[in-house]
Give the backbone structure.
Amino acid sequence: MLRIHFTAEDLSRTRLADRPDPLWEITASLHRLQSRAGRWAYAAWYRDARAAIATEQLGVIVRTLLFPLFPRATYFPDFLTPAQAGHGLRSGLDAILDTPPARVRQEIGLLAQVRNVPSEMYRLADDDLRADLVTALRKYHDAAIAPYDDRMQARVDAEFAHRGRDLLRGGAEGLLGGLGPAMRWKAPVLEVEYVRGVDRDLYLDGRGLLLIPSYFCWQKPVSVADPDLPPVLLYPLEPAGRAARPDPSDAPLSALLGRTRAAVLLAVTHGATNSEIARAVSVSAANASHHTTVLRDAGLIASHRHANTVLHTLTPLGASLLRLPGRDRRVTLQDS
């Protein structure tokens, strides 16, 4: 169990990432490759990733370098998931290159306490060897992660919209209270089901918490081990396979609106922009705009412009059509 302790200042500084963190996704995806747990949810990715790894001749690097560094264990080195990766893969890899050698040796030593570590792993403290690691991570990302970038972003977009509404309705405590089932908000503590064998407390001490929704994280959230690092919590989105299964209402909805337009309406469930809809439904932005215009004219969605962005939300009629009994029927948004 991980217990994260919040102050009032921490609640005001709690944030939600609006895009996948590439190095955390590399980490979680490598864990998926090392386990059968949840493989049903990632069956298509698992097949594609193995084929890409074979095609790019990365098998030896993955088995001998990446698996030992990113084990499914109670610990893996924190320098592999730097905060800078939130700005993109290049920034994250540059941060790995810039890690002080003493820190690399220390964290490899901590890893050796929970797993057998080849002695050559300590050589990652050398700049040249760490550059080789960065090259391996980039190649693995290009082969196994990049082809799924749009799907990952679409899932994060939907999560961001959903949790954003929780935040608007209930503040930070509303956001934290809706993260379950592996996380339970018992003010002022967020209780997190964690890796077996780990029981610890994390005191934020006014730094706040960055919540990072993850495509490849499975069931249990993950955090950094060093309490002095910027606090983050990587948490799983709904399993990909389960999210991809059709909702019972999809068939009649598709018959009424057409498959693509029904998918667009579903994408607007928690609020979405044209670009987010385009990613979610795999259509062009212009096509998404056409469908939202039709749905707006039919009174099923409302559109609100802010600067150069238009946010689409369901009207009560649209919510009723989607058969969402738990949705707030008091919504009274009108077309702008």
User: Anything to note?
Assistant: The beta strands are 2-5, 15-16, 183-186, 189-192, 200-203, 210-214, 232-236, 272-273, 301-306, 309-314. The two ends are 47 Å apart (CA to CA).
